[in-house]
Amino acid sequence: MTEGTTSAEGADTLTRLEQEGEIAADYLEGLLDIADLDGDIDMDVEADRASVSIISDTGSRDLQKLVGRDGEVLEALQELTRLAVHRETGDRSRLMLDIAGYRAKKRAELSELGAKAAAEVKSSGEPKRLRPMTPFERKVVHDAVKAAGLRSESEGEEPQRFVVVLPN
Predict the structure, then answer these.
(1) What is the pTM of this model?
(2) CATH assignment of the domain containing 111
(3) Which residues cross the membrane (predicted)?
């Protein structure tokens, strides 16, 4: 592969992800209109996936309905949005949805949890099992453990799948 091909493929991927973001934004704008909720939609591309956020100037209180308990409604809306993108493009989407900063806050908390677990494992030399988590939560913890210089694995079956932090 030549460098030019790589650049073109990178540009094609970016264009595809931007298209996913546009489709998702249109879908979510329609949803906000139906629910009579105020919110602005912010689109980005991060880590090879489209990222769409719904934010509100009037405070995130109204948008909490779209987050739900422990992010359950947010997860469902993310899947529906991915399906809407799939319907338009024919391609499976890995789009990430955040509402009222819920996922960003959760990511920070989980990164801290992963770092603390890694520190405990480094100190004790014993593996540490964490509570069951969603795939998103496990990914964030795995990344934090890796950044701390250790490794981790997921074990168990959904929805009881959990991360085990392992000593070197």
Answers:
(1) 0.80
(2) 3.30.1370.50
(3) none
For residues 132 and 104, the answer to whether their CB atoms sit within 8 Å is no
Say how far apart CA 41 and CA 62 lie, in whole Å. Answer: 15
73-126 pLDDT, tens per residue?
999 999 999 999 999 999 999 999 999 999 999 999 999 999 999 999 999 999
Q: Is the peptide bond before 159 cis (omega within 30 degrees of 0)?
A: yes
CA distance 165 to 128: 5
Total number of domains in the chain:
2
Range of the domain at 29: 3-100
Q: Are residues 96 and 112 in the same domain?
A: no
Give yes or no for a contact between 161 and 138, defined as CB atoms under 8 angstroms apart: yes
Residues 10 and 70 in one domain: yes
Q: Which tokens go with 165?
A: 């932090």
- The mean pLDDT of 3-10, rounded to a whole number, is 52
Residue 116 sits in the same domain as residue 95: no
Q: Which stretches of 62-154 are DSSP H helices?
A: 64-67, 72-89, 102-124, 135-147
